[in-house]
């Protein structure tokens, strides 16, 4: 029996249709699945869309850079340098847990081509790992204020080579410097992925103009 992560579920379905689209959206370090819940009504999605937003809660684990304090985290943060050493094992474990959630959406009747994987900060690193290595075609990947933790093209699946990828980053981000978002964009573009890279004059956060643009992008890819 699969043990699924606990999730907050928000449905955008004004017309009470059968849900046929899903967005699995991962929060950042120390937050939880409620973090992006208030964003859904602000996306401006059309009344004809029937979308299930799945906001999973990360497991509680000790985080090295916070003195080993136990908190919601997708993986341990070992150091804060630009060329940071990453907790590959836990990243892959969290990615598998998200792939289980994708499978649950498929079992609920959503075609994988109608599933977007999204993540903010630490959650974005997991979103990259999930979408780039997933064995079935997805609808899109949205990486917000994050970085490409495991850039191993040999593990990426060919079926998602033309996956629409949206990378957003704040130019004044003190937590994940914008150069890391640019590096992910450069690496994926060089590999032939369709990347849309946008920056906003903000810190480590989201802003209203960005949220509106996210809504338009979701409408396009879904």
From TrEMBL:
Pfam families: Abhydrolase_2 (PF02230). GO terms for molecular function: carboxylesterase activity. Its EC number is 3.1.1.1. Residues 17-221 form the Phospholipase/carboxylesterase/thioesterase domain. Keywords: Hydrolase. Belongs to the AB hydrolase superfamily. AB hydrolase 2 family. PANTHER family: LYSOPHOSPHOLIPASE-LIKE PROTEIN 1 (PTHR10655:SF17), LYSOPHOSPHOLIPASE-RELATED (PTHR10655). This is Carboxylesterase 2. It comes from Psychrobacter piechaudii. The lineage of its organism: Bacteria, Pseudomonadati, Pseudomonadota, Gammaproteobacteria, Moraxellales.
